[in-house]
Structures are given as structure tokens and as C-alpha cells.
Amino acid sequence: MDFSLTAEQQDYRDAIRALCKKFPDSYWRELDAHKRYPEDFVRALTDGGWLSVMIPTDYGGAGLGIVEACLILEEVNASGGNAAACHAQIYTMGALLRHGSEAQKRKHLPEIAAGRLRLQSMAVTEPEAGSDTSRITTFARKVDDGYLVNGQKVFTSRVQHSDLLLLLARTARAEDVPRKTDGMSLFLVDLRQARSAIEVRPIETMVNHETNALFITDLHLSDDALVGEEGNGFRHVLDGLNAERILIASESIGDARWFVDRSVAYAGERVVFGRPIGANQAVQFPIARAFMHAQAASLVRWQAATLFDAGASCGAEANTAKLLASEAAWEAAEMAMTTHGGSGMAVEAGIERKFREARLYLVAPVTNNLVTTYVAEHVLGLPRSYGTGGST
Questions:
Q1: Cα gap 42→88, rounded to integer Å
Q2: Which long-range contacts (C-beta less than 8 Å, at least 24 apart) are formed by 21-30?
Q3: Is pTM, for the whole model, over 0.85?
Q4: Per-residue pLDDT of the chain (392 residues; tens, 9 = 90+)
Q5: How far apart are the C-alpha atoms of 69 and 48, rounded to whole Å?
Q6: Would you kindly state where each structural domain of the chain is located, as residue ranges?
Q7: Span 235-379: which CATH code?
Q8: Cα(6)–Cα(246) distance, rounded to whole angstroms?
Q9: Which fold has domain 119-231?
Q10: Any residues with CB less than 8 A from the CB of 78 and at least 6 apart, and which?
């Protein structure tokens, strides 16, 4: 496979890099200090059409693929930003585009593409279920004019900055279906109409990543809120999860690039005992290894993205890319902290903020233990242990 960028794709990368220059380290440092959402940055991405990159042109989007989406999110993180503030609007398109009704797509996608409507949130995880999605208990009971939903979700991010929410709920109890992943359905919820039926409680975390617990009480949804087929919601969600894995990998690769670039610059200019610290192999070797590991992860990411855009099976590649990229980013983060020494702990340097942000992707949105389990079982054919890794 040829993974070199076309001239047009390079233009996209250059344009994102230019946009990100308007939001320097000081911008992100200030947001992090006060745990604020990057409204101005997300608006700039939206106005530039970057968050509608995967929406077809028939609905007002750019009509491009996940390869281009990878370029966007990678470059945001490589420029020192944090694409987690808005990445969901790209990867949630997988489920809506492939399984949404024509009426749903005609109603919502042009508004999302124009920036008048935000789809930034997906509610799947629950306190007692964790990574075992088959154990969710939020229930959508069928009533005459639609569904009545009750339950609880946790780690549902960006609800306060979204107009629509993708919600996974049971429409049949686990004990009443042949397979435990059956009987779940996906809904598109208009949060502006939900009002007091959804209570949102913010969860404070170690990074500036707005996430929440949701308490859902008698939420009424009309029949046209159902995305795809009733009972097949788990499979519909998987189309979004493979995209999520690939895009998260791209953000981690961007983080690794940022750490390496900062470390190369610092190691070349920081003089101790009469010479740059970068002349010491104990400093230069970790930088070089972090660079090489990020490059290797990037190649698997491009393979996964190419398969996804071709409509081919890519669960193994998407999961592998996510694991390798997140580990490469964390290796680069630790290397950067060591290279900078005490200076790395200073908030002004920016290393400690990105250090915290990079750590997240080792455990979320899927822990690397489950990714490894998925590969062991579904790729290598080893006996099932305790999970499936979440993608197909």
C-alpha cells in the first residue's frame, strides 16, 4: 500500500496547521487551568468545515473519508491542541450514515454540516457494566407513541456542548434474547427536547475532558428516534467504534509527534557540562525510539483507515492501531518529561498538560487490555478470556 499523502491531503494538513497556530500553548494552558471547553477552537474547526469531513456532499459535507479525518485530528494534537473536545462529531457519523434512515439524515446532517447542530456525544457506558456493553440495563420500553427510557450512563462526554446524543439502550432484556449482545437499540436523542428527563452530573477528572454521569427518568422518544433496526443497536454502534479506534490512534500519533518535536528542540539547545544534552546517547536514544515507535503505529493506522474507507473489515487493524499509537504516545510523553527534567513539571512548558492527556488513551475509550484480548481471541484464535475488545 502507498501511504504517501496526495497534494490535496497535504493541503488539508497545512490548513489545519495554520488554523492551530491561532490557538497557541497559552490558549490551551488557560483552558486547562480553568477546566473550560475550547469554544473558540471548536467553532473555528466547524466554520472551516473540518468537523463535517465525513458527511457526504449530498448532505452538505465534504464527502471525504476517514483518512482525511485522521489527518485533521492528528495535526490538531501535533500542534499542541486536544482534538478530544470535538472528535465525536466525526466518528459518530459511522453509525448514523450507515444505519440512520433517509429522513434522519436529511433532517440532521445538513444542519450538522452547516454548524447549526452539534452531535458531540454518545452514551453507551454504564456504572455496573463498564467495558462489558452487553450488561447495560438502561431500558427503552415500547409504548404506543414511541419509547420510554429509564436508566443511567457514565463517562458521557460533551453533553453540555451537544444538541444531539446517540444513546444505546436495551429494548429486550438480556435473559430474553439468544445472544447477550442482542436486544439493544440505538437512538438519536434531541437533548434540547429532553429537558429534565436527563439529569447531567459532571465528573471531575485529571484532564480537561468534559465528561458526565447521566440519570435518565421517563425520557420519551418518538419512533423516528430509533437508528437502524430495533434490537441491533450493538452492531450499529460498532460501526462508530472502529472509526473511533482509528481516530483516537491518530490523536495519539499527533501527541507523540508533539513530544518528539519538543524534545528534539530542547535537547539541541539545552547545554549542560559544556555541550547540548542531545549529544548524550542516554537522551537521544529514547527520543529516537519514541519517534520510530510512533512511525510504526502510524503505518498500522493508515492500513486501518484505508480498509475502513474501502468498506472492508478492519476491526483487528483498528484495535491494533489504537493500542500501538496510545503506547507510542505514552512512551513519548515519559521521554519528553525525562528529557526536560524539572522543567517538564512546570505548567508553562506544556509538557505536563499533554503528559496527562496522553495517559487517557491507554485506558479509554477502551482499555488496551481489552484490545489485547480482542486480538488474542478474534485474530489469533486463542480461547476466550473475559471480553471481546469492542470492535468487529
A1: 12
A2: 21/79, 23/81, 24/80, 25/80, 25/350, 28/80, 28/81, 28/82, 28/350, 28/353, 29/347, 29/348, 29/350, 29/353
A3: yes
A4: 677 899 999 999 999 999 999 999 999 999 999 999 999 999 999 999 999 999 999 999 999 999 999 999 999 999 999 999 999 999 888 788 889 999 999 999 999 999 999 999 999 999 999 888 999 999 999 999 999 999 999 999 999 999 999 999 999 999 999 999 999 999 999 999 999 999 999 999 999 999 999 999 999 999 999 999 999 999 999 878 899 999 999 999 999 999 999 999 999 999 999 999 999 999 999 999 999 999 999 999 999 999 999 999 999 999 999 999 999 999 999 999 999 999 999 999 999 999 999 999 999 999 999 999 999 999 999 998 865 444 44
A5: 13
A6: 7-113, 119-231, 235-379
A7: 1.20.140.10
A8: 20
A9: Butyryl-CoA Dehydrogenase, subunit A; domain 2 (2.40.110)
A10: 253, 254, 255, 257, 258, 261
What does the block give as the cell for 127?
456504572
Q: State whether CATH 2.30.110.70 applies to domain 7-113.
A: no
Q: Determine the Cα–Cα distance for residues 44 and 18; give it in Å rounded to an integer.
A: 12
Cα torsion 54, 59, 60, 66 to 10°: value is: 10
